[in-house]
Design a protein that fits this description.
Length: about 425
């Protein structure tokens, strides 16, 4: 199959064509030609105003729900939602039923995605059933193709488990992701702890609960790292979905010390504050919760200076039975695959080149994936988008089975036009 991209601006700092407007010919899954003008009969022509192209985007935090909770999402709808959002690769969390903790569960995702445009990269559980008590067979899982280790939606509450995991994974260049939350401080919490939670009469989730775990994990990382003679270029510990100003400061200081640490934020954290929960919209019930304006400003600064490495969707589908309830009874989570780029582009205040890096190069490096760049003869794993187009997100734009998003009706800046991967075009 031949596909021609006409007059697209290439956004890829690793490419010799970075910043240039070119035609690009795709043949049998490869970039066969890049030139000022290409005239050739093709199967598919992609053209339009202000089109940009980058290597395919990667989402490092997706709750797949399949197996076990297919009424909320299945792998077919998940891949459709990912492609609609511009993602050609997604990292899935292990919190399914059964838990992703065996070689067979890794094979389940890899086998399914062989025929899909979107590659599913399974992260596997650190502890059995994500309970934080006993280790999984991490070496076997690493050799079977696990892209990362995490208990996903559950923080690693056991400090000894976390330390031993760092020590165990480091020699094999493994990658540990942890969501920082001291759960004894967040029990029954519904939203960010502050003036708004007091006024609304809801139990708060304090910023301290996140920051205590960031401090603890960094201290353990420093201890584990001090015992290592051979230093690696990759991050050994990754904080998922940080949300507070102090967490950004702590990670910035740790990076300045040379610790192998990285972090991400969910795109939706940039769009709302705790003051937006006055109507008790359960689509705004997320964990970590929407915090203060000062926290958002700190997240924006962290994105700009490189403290925050990656932006994720934190896609967490929930059905009507889980969301159409009183606020304190509703489950946490929103869908984000279809909106992550546009929301981040609208609210992050960073240049498009920097934003694309946080969706491509940075994520690829952290996950130890082979480097890809836009060049003749290179693999055609691409995302095509218009970063300046303003559009209104509607329910018709949702490809996920679930509809739990607060962005319906919102005007966003930046829209995905298409994705190309494995000789497929969407």
């Amino acid at each position: 199959m031949k596909t021609l991209l006409k007059s697209v601006k290439i956004i890829d700092k690793k490419s010799d064509f970075n910043g240039q407007i070119k035609d690009m010919l795709i043949e049998e899954g490869k970039i066969s030609k890049i030139a000022d003008k290409i005239e050739e009969k093709v199967d598919k022509l992609i053209e339009g105003e202000n089109l940009h192209v980058s290597t395919g985007w990667i989402d490092m935090r997706v709750s797949p729900k399949d197996p076990g909770y297919e009424s909320k999402e299945d792998l077919i709808s998940l891949c459709k939602a990912a492609a609609a959002g511009g993602f050609t690769r997604i990292v899935t969390l292990p919190n399914t039923k059964p838990t992703v903790q065996t070689k067979e569960s890794i094979a389940y995702y890899k086998g399914f995605s062989k025929t899909q445009l979107v590659d599913i990269l399974p992260a596997v559980a650190v502890t059995k059933y994500c309970e934080g008590k006993d280790f999984t067979e991490m070496l076997d899982l690493h050799n079977a193709g696990a892209v990362a280790f995490t208990d996903g939606e559950h923080p690693l509450w056991n400090a000894d488990i976390l330390l031993k995991t760092l020590q165990y994974l480091y020699p094999i260049n493994g990658f540990l992701m942890n969501r920082p939350e001291e759960t004894t401080l967040t029990l029954f919490g519904q939203m960010h702890e502050g003036i708004e939670s007091t006024l609304l009469g809801m139990k708060g989730i304090p910023s301290t609960a996140e920051e205590i775990i960031v401090m603890r994990d960094l201290k353990l990382l420093e201890y584990a790292f001090s015992q290592v003679s051979e230093k690696r270029a990759h991050s050994a510990l990754h904080f998922s979905t940080i949300s507070t100003k102090r967490a950004v400061e702590l990670i910035r200081d740790a990076k300045a010390k040379g610790l192998p640490v990285s972090c991400d934020i969910a795109a939706h954290q940039l769009a709302f504050t705790d003051t937006d929960l006055k109507e008790f919209d359960t689509n705004l019930k997320v964990n970590p919760p929407f915090r203060s304006k000062a926290d958002i400003e700190a997240l924006q600064a962290g994105l700009a200076d490189g403290t925050i490495d990656v932006i994720v969707s934190d896609h967490n589908p929930q059905d009507e039975e889980s969301k159409n309830l009183e606020f304190d009874m509703a489950d946490f989570g929103i869908i984000g695959l279809e909106t992550a780029f546009a929301v981040a582009n609208t609210h992050s205040n960073i240049p498009i080149e920097t934003l694309v890096e946080k969706l491509t190069t940075n994520a690829s490096h952290l996950l130890r994936l082979p480097e890809e760049k836009i060049q003749e003869g290179g693999v055609a794993n691409l995302t095509i988008f218009n970063p300046d187009l303003k559009w209104t997100f509607t329910e018709k734009d949702i490809r996920s089975k679930s509809k739990n998003t607060p962005f319906v009706g919102h005007v966003l800046k930046g829209k995905v036009v298409g994705v190309i991967n494995k000789n497929q075009v969407a």
